[in-house]
Structure formats: structure tokens, C-alpha cells
Amino acid sequence: MSLFDISEPARQLQKELLDFMASHVYPAEAVYEAQMREAGDPHFHPPALEELEAEAKKRGLWNLFHPTPVPAPD
At what angle do helices 47-58 and 26-39 cross, to 10 degrees? Predict the structure, then answer.
């Protein structure tokens, strides 16, 4: 394995992340933009984002920057 090969766990995580993006994030972009526009507040946290966060946590795709899994707060 060279320095630039992707390990099997990383390859699986990449697949799961790309699937999440395609099935949830990209389709939610228009909803997110509409909710932000309707709120009129650039600091508004729209429901679409809350739903994406919940689904990402459910799939184990939350806080990926941690070197070891850390349980997400409920």
C-alpha cells in the first residue's frame, strides 16, 4: 500500500458519505434556500438543516474529524 492508497475503512466511509450527499444533502438544497429566504435572517437555523443533521448522526457521519468515534449528544 502506498501513501496515496485509500484504506478499506476510508473507502467505505467515502461511499457512505457520497450516498448521503446524493440522497439527502443535494435534494435538500432548494428547501434550505427557501427556508432561509422566508426567515429573512442570515443566522436562522432552518428545519431542513436539523433534518440533515439528524440523518447524518443516525448514519454515523457526524463529527468525522474525530480520530475515534465519539458519541453524539442527544
Answer: 150
Taking the chain, what is the end-to-end CA distance rounded to the nearest angstrom? 39
Is the whole model's pTM more than 0.90, yes or no?
A: no
Burial class of residue 12 in the structure, from the number of CB atoms within 10 Å of its CB (0-12 exposed, 13-18 middle, 19+ buried) = exposed
Give dist(CA 62, CA 50) in Å, integer.
12
CB 33 within 8 A of CB 49: no
Per-residue pLDDT tens over the stretch 29-42: 999 999 999 999 99
